[in-house]
Amino acid sequence: MKLQLTLTSLSPHTTRAIAGTLGSFLDQGDVIALSGDLGAGKTTLTGGLASALGIKEHVISPTFNIMREYHSGRLPLFHIDAYRLEDGNADIGLEEFIDDGGVSVIEWPQYIFEFIPESALFINIFILNGDARRIEFNSDNARFIDLFALLKETFK
Ligand code: ADP
Ligand code: MG
Predict the structure, then answer these.
(1) Which residues on adjacent β-strands are paired with residue 77?
(2) Mean pLDDT throughout 123-134?
(3) Which atom number of ligand 1 is nearest to the Cα of residue 133?
(4) CB-CB contact of 81 with 66 (8 Å)
(5) Which of 11, 40, 78, 139 is the S-S candidate for 97 at Cβ 3.0 to 4.6 Å?
(6) In this structure, are residues 75 and 101 in contact, taking their beta carbons and an 8 Å threshold?
């Protein structure tokens, strides 16, 4: 099962709206591996996701803390930025966050690749011109079939 979808976002608002649809589908233990260059919109997307989960706090980049957690929503959100783990596959205890029944969003997942579960939703944001972004979704997890269909219908 290979799910694949490519969307174009022309504004931060649209990226947050896409994340909103995503957030309404998420469930305990879900892992989102979120890739893209600096300034692509990873944290912006995570902010939209947090809002959709009913999280009241403003999501900021966790770069210097590696991980920030938010507990005011429908599900806990663990926002991980592995950028500073560049030197390779440090065990940050991702499995514990997954078992804790939250949603884990991981920026720079390539730096902790060996800990990313196969069931993850992989999102790649590419910077086009100006505010335009190409957002690619990939997953082998059949649970996301309806999500991909709804995203396609709403944003394509
Ligand atoms: P990252 O976490 O990938 O480094 P951020 O989300 O922190 O990126 O920053 C992305 C920046 O790009 C923000 O200032 C945001 O307003 C801007 N931006 C412009 N267009 C878009 C878009 N279509 N989607 C997301 N962010 C966008
Ligand atoms: Mg960021």
Answers:
(1) 70, 103
(2) 98
(3) 23
(4) yes
(5) 78
(6) yes
pLDDT digits (tens, 9 = 90+) for 61-72: 887 778 999 999
By most ligand atoms within 8 Å of CB, the mutation choice from 38, 43, 44 for ligand 1 is: 44
Centre of ligand 2 to C-alpha 17, Å, is: 17
Radius of gyration of the chain (CA): 14
pLDDT in tens, 25-69: 999 999 999 999 999 999 999 999 999 999 999 999 887 778 999
Q: Is 131 in the pocket of ligand 1 (CB under 6 A)?
A: yes
